[in-house]
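Notes from hallway chat w/ T.B., transcribed later so I don't forget. T.B. wanted the structure written out for a chain they're using in a teaching module, and asked if we could keep both sequence and structure tokens in one place. Agreed to drop them here.
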Amino acid sequence: MLLSVSLVFGMLIAWLVVTAVFIILCVYRALIGLQEDDVLYIDPGEEKQLAEQKAVSVKIDRLRPVLIGTLTLVIVLGLATFGLWVYQQLS
């Protein structure tokens, strides 16, 4: 049996997948952020902590553009899906 899937339904599935990826990325960013300290007092023998905090900061900085891009895709895909649904309902 061949399933016929409408364009709106396909776009809705794509939007849900992209939204799930965005939520997973947000949770991952939050988990990385738990390791980040607001203020760090370093004694001369504790440079290892400074290196760890820099690594966490680099991870968060690398993740930021991916989060922004994914959020933009979620918004655009959601609006396009809604617009196509409205267009189909009015036609």
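Follow-up for T.B.: The helical segments are 7-33, 47-90. Might be a good example for the class.
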